[in-house]
Design goal:
This protein has about 240 residues and is mainly alpha-helical. The chain is built from 6 helices and 2 strands. Strand 1 and strand 2 form a beta hairpin.
């Protein structure tokens, strides 16, 4: 009886946590099914830095590629915690991890909506608004990053953050702020429609990643009580 109760409780918890993800996945495939016979045989699938269409594809690519990528991403992120040697820590950041996964799927849905709207002939500048969505994703990731506990798959994983709990914590706090700044800058640069602004944001992002890599090393170097990922328990964080 107790085993049945536990199983039922686990299933209910899974549904509460995952239903919004399932809705987004259903919307992705459902939208493609609805417009399948309404879009042209060749439809826009890619835009350059100026927001101009520079790639087209058939219905299979245009209508199913993003939904299939979203489904694969969802399954992968659902399974990864089971394979992680630091899996015990996931229980301490279930909420942030769920938000991260949901934000990624939301970006997929937003991008797919813009692709479909363009294919249907609506005057939508998808090349401008997709980077805005990416910027919003960076902001979400940045806000969640400081709450992610040590593991091998999610977060800023360098040889030093994986070898030092202190390096992990400090690097993610600083990295979270940089992600938020980069996300806002990317969204604003895309809205202006100026390619040079996007290039500047890209340069800022590249420099930030290099600096975070070095910063994680310096914190690890000065940490006299190094605790690796697999040795860090949720209650110790």
């Amino acid at each position: 009886m107790s085993n049945e109760t536990t199983s039922t409780g686990s299933n209910e918890s899974l549904v509460r946590r995952e239903w919004s993800h399932w809705v987004i996945l259903g919307a992705l495939f459902g939208a493609s099914a609805v417009v399948w016979n309404r879009v042209p045989a060749q439809m826009p699938t890619h835009w350059n830095i100026r927001g101009e269409v520079d790639g087209t594809g058939g219905r299979l690519e245009g209508l199913l590629l993003l939904p299939m990528i979203a489904l694969g991403l969802y399954v992968m992120l659902l399974v990864l915690p089971r394979l992680d040697p630091g899996r015990a820590n996931y229980a301490s950041f279930v909420g942030p991890y769920t938000v991260i996964r949901l934000a990624m799927l939301a970006l997929m849905l937003g991008t797919h909506t813009l692709v479909l709207a363009t294919a249907l002939g609506y005057a939508v500048n998808a090349g401008r608004w997709i980077p805005v969505g990416v910027g919003a994703l960076f902001v979400v990731l940045g806000n969640a990053m400081g709450k992610v506990r040590p593991n091998y798959f999610v977060g800023i994983r360098t040889p030093w953050t994986l070898a030092s709990a202190r390096s992990w914590e400090k690097t993610h706090r600083v990295g979270g702020r940089l992600f938020v700044v980069a996300g806002i800058a990317l969204a604003l640069a895309s809205i202006t429609g100026r390619p040079e602004a996007l290039v500047a944001v890209g340069a800022f992002g590249a420099v930030s990643l290099v600096w975070l890599f070095y910063y994680s090393f310096t914190v690890w170097r000065d940490d006299t009580e190094r605790v690796p990922v697999t040795g860090t328990k949720p209650e110790e964080r």
